What does this fold into?
Amino acid sequence: AVVSTQSTGEKVPISAESVRFNEKAKKFCYGNYSKYYGYRNPDKEQDVRLQYFDDSFFAGKDVLDLGCNIGHITLTIAKEYEPKKIVGVDIDGNLINVARKNIRRYLSKEKSSKFPVSMQLCYGPLFGQGSNENKFPNNVTFRKENWVPLVEESDAVTEMFDVILCLSVTKWVHLNWGDDGIKNLFRKMYQSIRPGGKLILECQHWKSYARRKKLTPAIYKNYGEIQILPHEFPQYLMTIGFVDWQTLGTPYHSQKGFRRPIWIFSKPATSGSTAEPILSPENNSSAPSSQQSSLATSSQSSSEISVSHSQ
It folds into this structure.
């Protein structure tokens, strides 16, 4: 038996029994590449995407960076954009450990403190620093977490943010947890953003999904069942409550796959809009709704869009 993927008509076997999976690469099935920034920013100190971020996005704000990898963007924002706090989250504990160690590298550029750097790294922020409590490095933390919600978490959002960053993460959520996973992620984002807050989203091109479909049997199955495509994400986000979105820009990269537009979405300042209930991942095989069906017939080419911090 075979199924045709919606955008390309490519025939994908439903059963994965006859497929040869890349056992060596499956450890990176979440896009958790330890050398990702080396691929993305060769011979460059600063990520070009930062040029598209305005100070006002982050200054004095509570910020969440989903899929932070080893933390370069998280740390740059913490140090140079002066958020009240920024939390970097990644599913890979090894990457989080490196991100924490990278605090030392960013601190090395600061003026020496009367306290050794090791004290802050070992024991956390040093209280009693007065106005510096919300300054780098006291305003940044990293933690290992799978932020993709399960159905029982639908009413469990307890941590709120003014801004959520989700840069080059959605493809990996989509491949590992299917349409319900990506929808649940978007709903949890909406629920976790304070009224008037922002979502900054960068997505990979749909065609890049195919190159990773044989990482695991679950990814292979989900790839063949995907109904909502990356270029449809903005329309979907508007249906769950965001009221405005725009393209900040598409950073140039020598590799076309990294030329991904960066979008910014606004949550209404009032509480009039609410997110839909989070779906159960077990319902991933259910038929698309009428809204999804109309989105699927969009005339916009998937090549115009990019959707994870990983290729």
